[in-house]
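To assess whether the prediction recovers the assembly geometry, we first specified each molecular entity separately, as shown.
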Amino acid sequence: MSNIEQSEPGITPPLRSLLSAMLFEALPDSARRQLRDHAPVQSFTDGQLIHQRGTAPDGFCLIEEGTVSVGQFLASGEFRSVALLGPGDSYGELAILSRRPRIVDSLARGPARVRFIGGALFERVLASDPAAMRALLGAMAAQLQETLDLLAGIRSGTTLARAAGLLGNLAGGGHQPRTVTITQQEIADLLGVTRATANAALARLEKNGLIARSYRAITVHEPARLRIRALE
Amino acid sequence: MSNIEQSEPGITPPLRSLLSAMLFEALPDSARRQLRDHAPVQSFTDGQLIHQRGTAPDGFCLIEEGTVSVGQFLASGEFRSVALLGPGDSYGELAILSRRPRIVDSLARGPARVRFIGGALFERVLASDPAAMRALLGAMAAQLQETLDLLAGIRSGTTLARAAGLLGNLAGGGHQPRTVTITQQEIADLLGVTRATANAALARLEKNGLIARSYRAITVHEPARLRIRALE
DNA sequence: TTCGGATTGTTCGATATTTGACATTCCTGT
DNA sequence: ACAGGAATGTCAAATATCGAACAATCCGAA
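The predicted structure of the complete assembly is given in tokenized form:
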């Protein structure tokens, strides 16, 4: 599992699980064990390319050690990261399931060890365990719902309204205060605005008593209220 | 099937299949027949609410006749539509699969007849047909890939770059010219900008020879080139 | 405790977008 | 052929955001 703050109630995980479909963890223990036991581990050096976007998928990856950055190379050669994944995290399952090319590049960030789970093995395990397949269906459906919700919430409106919707969403939309662990840069990236603009919007939401800003975290006093605010 | 222009090669469908997860059609014929045969049909009058966002799912819908608008009510009471679905279209499968509340409201637009496929029946059919479940997994994985790609492409950058990325994406990213059936207002909605801004971006892309504008359609001369353009 | 890197807070001129409006074109039904 | 509604093209003042920079705060490692 990645560095998710789970020791404290009310703290929600950061975004990496939303933007990078980590489906491996939705599988039952037995399926996970089976996949892991038959999969070879490879080592990568800092900056080494693991997989390229557009390539045909022959397997997916489970990170054993180190950090892998998942994202996309820009025309300028720069790498735009969507997620930073660590030990226990997985990526690349979607391409296997959809039988379509990979949509992301992946790079080692520092030395990394990555376990490759072959597509054929994955299909065999799924075929022999309908409960595993159903669990995967459920996890993917939930993620698709969240992604569509996120898409709907950030598409248009003033930055202020969009920030309200995003935070209400990330804080789970309920009526209890929730603290979201996220940097303002990440919020800015999600909304597609500059950090300065995101900061200004957050400052206004805080001034209105809807949120409290702290270092690398935002406390949402009433997530449902923020969602409503976003729809105005 | 909804009003998709399939008679002409190079014409891609509009967005409704992307923004509304119509998974029913990914099922094998036998599974579809089985679901349809046991499902009751209900009639709705113009403007009648069919389902409300946030409600627990007991089934999903297959449109028999008429038009259903799927989207979300704003705080002002206005309805923001995400998709307009017609005969043969389905919606609401995600909530069943994820076992989470519905994320959309749905309204009849004119008189409509809708077939309700119960969640329990759906689960039974899936459990008895692993091929159907695998097909659904694949369709959902593909859709999640597309949605994540869309999200990645529209999140930040100038409107011009984002429009380029979106069109490159919608046109399939290949090297052959493709015509995308879409209004400029729909492009604007997707990008979260006004129609005037979308039109200005499109005009510039056309001036640069990358696209050709026509009524309710955009021809993308080389989709792969537009995608690259978006990443600059 | 100190240091260094990351993150946040803020500012302001430059640039982009919105808004509201009007004109023109397109398409479909009668 | 005509009418009406939808879609597109365009414009300019008002408003929002970007970009670059600097200062302040936070946190983890030594």
